[in-house]
Protein 1
Amino acid sequence: MNAIQNVTRWKLGHPLLAGIVYAFVWMALGALALSVLLYSSSASEDEMKGYIYIVHCIALFIGGWISGKRSGKKGWYYGGMTGIAYALLVMLIGFLAMDAGVSLQKFVQTIAAFAVSAIGGIIGVNMSKSTQ
């Protein structure tokens, strides 16, 4: 009986892990919404690139916000590390699935992911202090 109670109380304890999980959940929801939009309209995949970047930015911001809120301190650090981990995981998936290589554009996108998530982390830390 004790083991069942421990399983139901499982939480994402580390701020970085929580931020990555939340970011990927929001990315999946955004990808699903874009897939429905693509299926129901006459738009092509090339026309959706801007929307894809918006979905990634929202996911990165929320992931940074969650990691900053969970940490309670150093929001820019935890948010930024969440952004870098997210970018590296997306690049790894792209490399394994589509044989995409490493380029200067990927490096710039990783820096942008750091910045967006760091801003989310800063806001998350400040919101966690104001709600307590």
Protein 2
Amino acid sequence: MATQAAMPQRRRRHRASGRQHHSPLGLVLPAVLALTVGIWAASIERFENGGVATGGQWVLGVVAAVVIGALAFGLGRIQHALPRELRALAYGALTAATIGFLTSLAGGSVLRAAGIGVAVGAGVGLVMFYYYYTHE
């Protein structure tokens, strides 16, 4: 029994560089979201223009994927610095912009795209607020 009290404890070394290491999910989730939105945008544009794949549709899909992926990645990096209300609002706004953009590509009017985007974004924002409120 006395040996347990006398055993030295291991001390963890702290990195002096200040770099944070993030989980692989922080990279995979925005990449999957970007890939999904890019393919979805390209397929909407393809079906709206007669079903033949063109270079413009591929460019639209890649640009949509890069923009949404960069925004989701950036939001994932700064989310812990935000209070829960602003964090929920940011996720709701990102969702609203994405859904509004995809709705406008599908041939909806600006008012319809904005309405659907705001409705879905408000729902996501409320769900995220509830999640953060109950888990903090």
